[in-house]
């Protein structure tokens, strides 16, 4: 039988020391957690290794011509993915800009006492449900709703402001802007949810102290709450960008699948994920090698973005200590 020990300085409090069972549970949990970490790392390395192994013949045969080429013609044996790389990054960052503004604003609106708690919970649930909608449904919605809705505005912008490179072409159908708008809606739940968690994690005493210093509601939010939650908010943006870089079906339906590089928001474009999805089913052996090369590039871009974002978050956390 374990004998209770008394905490020094407080003779009225007594507690039991950890039992052998507690030690066993603790050590088992630690072991399982370490095994889980090792398995995740092993899975990532195995995935990169396997894709790299399949891409190696294409890399040896075509070298950097695939990365720098802009023509994709199977009949001529020309495989260039530079327009797809451009379209992937361009559409992802435009979507991140749109979703970042609305996602963080939504998180502030739902966590900073602008709504009653029950009503805020309803809106939070609605936003989270956006993540459950299939990608193909977003694509169909973009084709039949988004493109017709924005076409008059894009026509006016092209006519009146066509000298600006971003509005230099007309929107005849699928293009970069409708793809980016739909992509922004798809990553909005991730950014909003993580930003809400970051703002909620800020101690209430911090906000109360700001009020005690005489700040207004908005000053407390913008000068105290948001900076305090900046690391978590940045993490939400990194997660959203990672999701945007790998999105496939909706972009394949909306981006236009044209291998050209243009600053125009209305021009058709292509992305690496769409290129892979549309060409793999009928690809021959030579094309598969290049497609695996493109898959490796997409994977490396995503990993680099996430690693870079994690490093910035770690640096910010150290700076706050």
Automatic annotation (TrEMBL):
The keyword Metal-binding does not apply. One of its GO terms (biological process) is phosphate ion transport. The chain crosses the membrane at residues 31-49, 89-110, 122-147, 176-199, 220-241, 261-278, 290-316. One of its GO terms (cellular component) is plasma membrane. PANTHER family: PHOSPHATE TRANSPORT SYSTEM PERMEASE PROTEIN PST (PTHR30425), PHOSPHATE TRANSPORT SYSTEM PERMEASE PROTEIN PSTC (PTHR30425:SF1). Part of the binding-protein-dependent transport system for phosphate; probably responsible for the translocation of the substrate across the membrane. Residues 85-309 form the ABC transmembrane type-1 domain. It is a multi-pass membrane protein. It is found in: Cell inner membrane; Cell membrane. Belongs to the binding-protein-dependent transport system permease family. CysTW subfamily. Keywords: Cell inner membrane, Cell membrane, Membrane, Phosphate transport, Transmembrane, Transmembrane helix, Transport. GO terms for molecular function: phosphate transmembrane transporter activity. This is Phosphate transport system permease protein. It holds the Pfam family BPD_transp_1. Its main location: membrane. It comes from the Bacteria.
């Amino acid at each position: 039988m374990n004998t209770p020990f008394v905490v020094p300085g407080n003779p009225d409090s007594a507690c039991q020391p950890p039992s052998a069972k507690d030690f066993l549970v603790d050590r088992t949990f630690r072991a399982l957690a370490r095994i889980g970490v090792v398995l995740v790392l092993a899975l990532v390395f195995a995935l990169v290794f396997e894709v790299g192994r399949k891409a190696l013949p294409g890399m040896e045969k075509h070298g950097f011509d695939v990365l720098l080429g802009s023509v994709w013609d199977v009949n001529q044996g020309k495989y260039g993915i530079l327009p797809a790389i451009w379209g992937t990054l361009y559409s992802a960052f435009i979507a991140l800009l749109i979703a970042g503004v609305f996602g963080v604003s939504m998180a502030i609106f739902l966590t900073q006492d602008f709504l009653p708690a029950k009503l805020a919970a309803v809106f939070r649930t609605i936003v989270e449900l956006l993540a459950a909608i299939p990608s193909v449904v977003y694509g169909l919605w973009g084709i039949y709703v988004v493109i017709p809705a924005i076409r008059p505005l894009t026509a006016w912008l092209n006519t009146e402001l066509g000298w600006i490179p971003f509005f230099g072409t007309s929107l005849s159908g699928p293009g970069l802007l409708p793809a980016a708008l739909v992509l922004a809606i798809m990553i909005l739940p991730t950014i909003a949810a993580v930003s809400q968690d970051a703002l909620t994690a800020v101690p209430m005493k911090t906000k109360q102290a700001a009020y005690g210093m005489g700040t207004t509601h908005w000053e407390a939010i913008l000068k105290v709450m948001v900076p305090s939650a900046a690391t978590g908010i940045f993490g939400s943006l990194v997660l959203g960008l990672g999701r945007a870089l790998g999105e496939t079906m909706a972009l394949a339906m909306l981006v236009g699948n044209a291998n050209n590089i243009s600053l125009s928001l209305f021009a058709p474009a292509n992305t690496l994920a769409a290129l892979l999805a549309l060409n793999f089913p009928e690809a021959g052996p030579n094309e598969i090698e290049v497609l695996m090369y493109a898959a490796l590039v997409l994977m490396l871009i995503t990993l680099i973005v996430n690693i870079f974002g994690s490093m910035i978050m770690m640096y910010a956390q150290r700076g706050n200590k």
